[in-house]
Here is the input.
Amino acid sequence: MQSDCIILGGGAAALASAAALGAGGPRVTVLEKLDRVGKKLLATGNGRCNLSNTDMNPSYYGEAAPFVARVYEATPPDEVGAFFSRLGLMTAVEDGRVYPRTMAAASVLDVLRLGCERTHVSLLTGREVVGLTPSRRGGWSVQTADGEGFFAPAVLCAMGGSAAPHLGTDGAGARLMERLGHTVTPQYPALVQLRSPHPALRALKGIRTRAALTLMIDDRPHARETGELLFADYGVSGVCVFQLSRHVERALEEKRRVSLLVNLLPEVPDARFWLAARIAALPGSSAQALFTGVFPRLLAQTVLRQAGIAADDPAASLTPQSRDALAQAVAAFPLTITGTQGFSHAQVTAGGVSTDDIHPQTMASRLYGGLYLAGEILDVDGPCGGYNLHFAFAGALTAAKAIQNQLGV
Here is the structure.
């Protein structure tokens, strides 16, 4: 089967590029191995699909920032918004995060599908890509697991990373690119929960509290985040945890020590001063009572145990050493981190095809003509807040413009 462009994958970047390309007239074939397109897109943002942010500063993408900046020069953030507006999507903003007005990811998928259906785009599902070969006569041959063959002058690989393999992204795209000679950096789960063996966690399961987290690597501060912390029997979760998680697996693989210091009262500048004032304000109280109205009961008991203090000890009788230990438990509760919940729970992949192999102005491969890459398959990952989806859409639209230029449309 021949078309003008073949798009590998049926996720966010694939559908955006297909809709943009199809609007220009080329015949586009999308190959998705699952039974329908956009399954992972439906799961993003807890089903609400945080697709962008009002602050798209490339610095949020860490080491990939220079590459992302060039992509956003080629396709500015406003251009992504205009693309979805043309498709008919109305959006709403909460704390800088851009969502569909319906607060339903299905609305984003619906407008992308409609954009494809209105043009020369064929969405073929149940097509697992197993081979990609540059043709001697120019262009690309694509082979699927069922033995079917496809040919086009241009191919866009948007097969995703390794996060959420049950939604179709299992690293196959990176393996395909590696076989063609592209450099693929090690892949790690990102935006994912962290595991800790601390014995108190089972009792704290389900408790939420505002906290400031410091990620320690080899006993040195590496990154900090503040937000709602959720305790679980396996470890900790919450957006603040997700933001730090991209650093964890790589450090552990390098045999480095990883831990979290949890400030359970981040709004208090000095836990020692606060504790002294609390004891003075509650004369005759027990140590447990110092945290009444401050922490849930089980969390207060955990903090006291961490400091080696019995719940019914008189607060006024605490020694200076005990007060210091209690203040330390409040302001820097230690959690050894042994890993993450893995790709099966991760929202994003850190690592992938090296950006050194890609022209950011076009998303074209530096190794082959007519080959383009976009989305999570690349070694680019950002924080929570719409940054990963926006990069996927911006890269997809950048590639679509370059492919149109290649095809002369």
User: Anything to note?
Assistant: Residues 387-407 form the longest helix (21 residues).
